[in-house]
Write a structure and sequence with these properties.
With about 280 residues, the protein is an alpha+beta fold. The chain has one domain: Roll (Urate Oxidase), CATH 3.10.270. It is about 25% helix and about 35% strand. Strands 1, 2, 3, 4, 5, 6, 7, 8 and 9 form a 9-stranded antiparallel β-sheet that branches. A hairpin with a 2-residue loop joins strand 4 and strand 5. Helix 1 runs antiparallel to helix 2. The longest helix has 13 residues. The protein is elongated.
Amino acid sequence: MKLEEKPIEDIQARKDYRNISIDRVGVCDLKIPLKLKGCEIDSERDQSVQASLSLSVNLNPDQKGIHMSRLLETALDFNGAFSLENMASFLIALCDRQGSEDSDVKIEFDYFFNRHAPVSGKISPQPYKCTYHGEMHPEGIRLTQSVVVPVKTLCPCSKEISDYGAHNQRSKVFITITHENKKESDPIDICLEEIIGIAERGASSPLYPLLKREDERHVTMSAYNKPCFVEDVVRNIASELHGNPSFDSYELRVLNYESIHSHNAFASIGKRSSNK
């Protein structure tokens, strides 16, 4: 059956007479493959990940709807190596395609970083939950990069008061770095591996997916030699962030999954940009 060809009206372009603007409208939970630009540290190559995207723009009060398909088209146009530096161009392209002033992009993905066991040298991939978030307004562009880093902590008090041993547990470090008033050509010289390294150095020990017996012994003893309260971890990390001008604005939170309590422990530190 042949369908009759006729003009197709652009319904979204109709006028809306309720005169109510919409702050954000778009798509969420969009799953696409994404190639991430690798970090120069350790000569890491570009990495392909499955990303979950949220894309949105504002809508003027006199317009009925946005063109949803253009959001996806814009995302798929960025088929080269993506990095946080590309985010400003991404936000601008979304606004241009929709005729909007504001745009918002959130990209969530698991980033894999090869970990070398401390003694055997066995290599295994460790996933880290990461988020890139960009917001564009007439006042400027705001970019954030967030990483969740699993680590190990050993209690200094437990070590001090016990005849032998000490309670220890897995912990998580949540780091969000904010870049204010970014322009399309501004470089961002912070890579994910650098943030991960700072988080791991602040704890009693990193975590490793694959450990042989000699590695397990090393991790156990090295953590015992570097006991850390949750307060120690958050301060250790903050002191390293404070000493680097690239980390002008950040939110830092450490969560201990306490092994001898039914509750958990946390500590947080924030620093606001001096150039805001």
